[in-house]
Amino acid sequence: MKKLYISFLVISILALYGCKTPDQVDVANDLDKELEEILMTSSAGKGKSFYQMPESDDLASIPQDPKNPLTPAKIELGKLLFHETGLGQNPKMSSGMNTYSCASCHHAKAGFQACMPQGMGDGGSGFGVNGESRTMSEGYQFSDIDVQNIRTPSAMNMAYQTNVLWNGQFGGTHLNNGTEASWTPGTPKFENTQGFEGVETQAIAGRDVHRLVIDKIFISNVGNYKELYQKAFEDNTINDPKKLRDNGALAMAAYERTLLSNQAPFQLWLKGQFGAMSDTEKEGAKLFFGKAGCSNCHNGPSLANMEFYALGMKDLKKGSYGDHSVINVTDASVEHKGRGGFTGKEEDLYKFKVPQLYNLTDSPFYGHGATFYSVKDVIVYKNNAQPENDIVPVDKLSPEFKPLGLTETEIDQLTMFIEKSLRDPNLERYVPERLPSGLAFPNNDPQSIVDLGW
Asked: In the CATH scheme, what is the code of domain 30-56+261-421?
């Protein structure tokens, strides 16, 4: 009789809750309702839907360049090309042939960042566990390595960026209308003249910057790339090397637009799974969109607006960053001037684009100069509002850079929200199982092959 009663009780509970796990709880408590009210204010009356990301296969709902419409075939081709080490055919040394890809600096294990203060393409060796152990290949000189003068930005949620990079230099539309004088012939910025948005322009410009050769892989028909290309573009450009190069880059940009953190706990919460976030995370979210004022700049689905601010953070510098070394960076690097280094305008100096905030904890470096080593470090910096970069004049600092008055408990709550609620745990869904070339990826150098277990 006792067993029968217990069975009846279990059945009753299951019927009541519909076999739901904690994160599937669809009844809002008082904390949820408070957060919903705050979001209504921060979104100017649009509510939770203002922050929701679509599913990655809901192409009609993903922001896209009208000149590069999204299609499943184009995205699938782009996913392969983005990771294809067989595109690494213009290295500084023959030993670098077919060893690097776009994903060398933007890979899933690091939240499509580099997991290093300075991403390293051609001339890099090794991967480690999450991309943290890439070093200079034997035989290469410092001047040979493909590295940049600023921390590698995330490729996540780029669909919500009309102009990309820390200075917003890529994209011949939107914010860059009127900056044509800065589109210098013979430089990557000249690709803005093609009139694409930022994601597409960066992909096109990145071919030469990062020593990638796209057309040959179609012409030689490695694997089934020729067939995939013709399916994606349905034209007769297979014999036009320039179109192959441009279309291959556009396919990669199409793929990048689908890299959405739509399985992060905050995104699940927005869709009604109120148990997806803990009470501490919800308190942190209330601070983010309320008292702390984070959403004054970090707003919208990717929690980033298309604006530029001077916050006085230090720049990427040559030297040691813990176990990592930064190379080929000088104090005169134009990247250190932020938006002003691109536009040449005095009012733009030292301003950097507001970054998206999802999957930050997958890489242990923060800020355009990689000088912060945790989310909490950044929050404390903004809470204190004491600039650390002596090069940035005080009168250039943003009015938004002011003390926030957060307590230690509030800092911890805010940190928890950003670290936990904004981390999509399943980015591997955006990674191909294998490449048509059969090569290892995201790197194909001997040490990476060992590290990756190929």
From this structure: 1.10.760.10
